[in-house]
Amino acid sequence: MANEVLQSIRDLLPTIAERAREVDASRHVSDAAIADLQQAGVLKMLQPKRYGGAEGDPVEFYEVVRAISGACGSTGWVASVLGVHPWHLALFDQRAQDDVWGENDSELISSAYAPVGKLVPVEGGFELTGNWRFSSGCEHASWALLGGLVFGAEGRPVDFMTVLVPRSDYSIQDVWDVVGMRGTASNEITVTKAFVPEYRTIRNYDTAQLRGRGQKVNSGPLYRLPFATIFTSAIAAPIVGVVAGCHESYLTMMRERVRLSLGGGRFAEDQAAQVAVARAASEIDAAMLQMDRNVRDLWNLARAGEDLPMWMRLRARRDQVRATERSLEAIDLLFKTSGGNSLTRGNPIERAWRDAHAGSVHVANEPERALALYGRGAFGLPFEDNLV
Question: Which one in 88, 118, 257, 381 has a CA-CA gap of 20 to 30 Å to 8?
Fold first, then answer.
């Protein structure tokens, strides 16, 4: 079946590309751009049908994210993270979903999953206090998914949860002034002694076990997939898309370029440049193909009602972090061979290089832990991690 959202997004790509320089300079994606993404259906691709969403194929979602990111990395990143959160909310208690989408099924949710919040049990729920440094696109969201540790009577952490908090319960500090992915406006969120009802919480352990109370009302196969596959792929896909877009820009910019040194001649006739283009294209293809293969395999098993084997979940994490590594290898090749003209601030190659490297430092793209987990699984050794 054709990816209908992708077809709609393709018409918007020239506009997204035209806005990219301003997004980078202003450090945020405009309300108009978010409205365009909503109109195209991007942000509801993984949202439950019962709340006006498409509840669609996750592979198609990542395809759309890559296309947007190829035109503007920050816009693609924000589209990906805001677009993946409806999937996570679908695992929460129905009452939490009703709180967000009951009156307006276009409400958006940001996140900051680091467990830096302190959750103290109180009657009916928890008292939450904390400061989360990075929440991409939070200015466009009316709710936030925040990570926190539950503290027991002895003052020690006893559990790890993600909680849903309304905009009225937190403040946002504009601190995002960074080298790359500048337009994601990944600002700080602060909560002070806010009450979180129990039904707006989900244990990370349960999520890792593919369990969620929301599955009672959202029983489709999409919500049986692992968080570690769906969310981490949403963090890697924009980087792959940025680099794929950079590859196209590189070919366009360098195809007719004439060298002014090293003997002159057309750049495209240089064998070193030809090899760089080939290597970069191969790394990009490998990243896309492996990620899509893994998500599709898990999706097909979920649709068939079959169990999702751990080796397949580990493979998905392995290839997701490798996709980021491969993308960086590709863009470094392109950047290195593009010459001094591409150093100009705002040049598409320069901006893509910054965006790709900035996105790679997200914890979901950290390779050592994910690769070690795969290795432990391959050797038959025990392991425990919430991100598989």
Answer: 88
The residue among 169, 60, 168, 38 whose CA lies nearest residue 105 is 38
CA distance 99 to 191: 19
Q: pTM, whole model, 2 decimals? A: 0.96
The CATH number of whichever domain residue 177 belongs to comes to 2.40.110.10
Residue 219 domain-assigned (yes or no): no
> Distance between CA atoms of 171 and 168, rounded to whole angstroms?
8
Q: Which tokens go with 368?
A: 């050592």
Taken in order 306, 209, 362, 133, is the CA torsion positive or negative?
A: positive
Contact 160, 5 (CB under 8 A): no
Same-domain status, 313 and 190: no
Please give the average pLDDT of every successive group of 10 residues along the chain, which has 388 residues.
Answer: 86 96 96 97 98 98 98 98 98 98 98 97 98 97 98 90 98 96 98 98 96 97 97 98 96 78 70 92 98 98 97 97 98 88 81 97 95 95 77
Please list, residue by residue across 2-34, b when 16 or more beta carbons sit within 10 angstroms of its beta carbon and e when fewer do.
ebebbebbeebeeebbebbbebbeebbbeeebb
DSSP secondary structure letter of residue 258: B
- Give every CB contact of residue 365 below 8 A, 6+ residues apart in sequence: 232, 235, 236, 239, 320, 321, 324, 359
Residue 127, in any domain of the structure:
yes
- Residue 260 to residue 245: CA distance in whole angstroms: 26
CATH of the domain at 307: 1.20.140.10
Cα–chain-centroid distance for residue 269? 38
Q: In 126-181, where does DSSP find H-type helix?
A: none
Is residue 317 one of the residues assigned to a domain?
Answer: yes
